[in-house]
Amino acid sequence: MLGLTKSTLGKRGCSSCGAILHGVIAVGVSCAMSSAVAMSRGPVRVDIKRIDGQPAARIPESDDTGNEWVRLHIAGVGRATGPASPAVVYWVITVPDDVPPVYLKRGECVVFGQRIPGATVETPPKPFDVDKRYNFALVTSSESGTWIYKGNFCVREKLGSGTRAVLLNEDSDPCPRGR
């Protein structure tokens, strides 16, 4: 892989991000997101963490895309409602090519609803439905190409009141009724 720096990556836009955005909003942030959306290799798994009770997608320290900075183009959360039904989108932001690029270091997180300078809010954050499985997707680019990172989480009721994101590795089946 070529050395990735902010200056070299800044010159490289995401020429296909318009098409990818349409795909991400339509199916990319739903369970229906498949490898056909952006590349033949399929999405790269992203770890989902919880930051201040909200789900957060954490860029892996190293993966098939390399181990350097990545440029963020799209972040979103959604869930599928059925094989023939449209996905429900809970939050989407885009970073247009005509604003200063947003770079993510390896190990850095994007939090649901986070305000990112220069990003356009396509869908403001909506309250989650309980006992449903969600997808968190990030569309990024690096010297090695355009990549989709994707991870899953569930939302359960908190004892007392409110909801909390449940990471799928915390429970063998955290959303038995809401797949």
From TrEMBL:
This is Lipoprotein. It comes from Burkholderia pseudomallei.
